[in-house]
Amino acid sequence: MTRTLVPNAIAALLALTLLAAPAASLPQDQTVFTSFEEIDPNTAVGELIVVGVWPNSANFTGDAFAGVIGDFSLYHSGLKSWMVVTNGTGVISFEIDAAVVEFYAKVLSLAMRSTVITAFDAFGVIVGAPVTVSPGTGWQLISLSGAIARIEVENLDKRQMNAIDDFGFTPVPDPDGDGIDSPFDNCSLRANPAQDDTDADGCGNLCDADYVQSGTVSIADFGRFALCFGTPDEICQHAEPIGGRLVGIGDFGFFVNSFAIVPGPSGTTSGTKACP
Q1: At the topology level of CATH, where does 23-171 sit?
Q2: Per-residue pLDDT tens for 250-267?
């Protein structure tokens, strides 16, 4: 009896340990997620696919397309995936570097060669080690981390497509490096630790020359800037320090570069259309 109880007790303890262990992260847990089901109809090879909302978005292009071809083994979930054609390379790029990227990848059993997945930073340097997905190994969860600007999915086979599905990523929390994470940063792509926002529209001075709140920097804003130039009017100051100086040539340079462009982006917009 004792011999039976001891193994059973050990098995029970192991089961409790496994149940208590945290579940592995899945792509759905990331900030942006797609199963490609929203792609309708099929895209053409090379056609740009944008997932997420800019700037927290990823661009899918290269020798690949998204949709359905009737082979259910190419879909991890649902009835669609992103597929790289034979002997081709699919490219995934991020508007803001991704801190974590997770997705499922598969190479069909009849393929003779593997698929190689390589992540790069903004300078073209490989992040981590390339991942190889071999034919016939089923769906493989790919988890990548670091400051990832681009991913290349290289299909080395000349007969079979490969597939990517259930794709998720989380952007780097503070891409401009000003010490304020994007959800709380009123200029999330331009460093502004002071967070000055003279017109209180949720968009900081260092990324906002839309004084009339139209949603785009326009001639009306230029008229306002002309009145500001050479004065201490802080609304037209776009270089730190904000305040205690006159609007000058540096502020004008920012305005010129902002003309006809949507201000921002901001993580703290007040809900006006002026700063998405």
Answers
A1: Jelly Rolls (2.60.120)
A2: 999 999 999 999 999 898
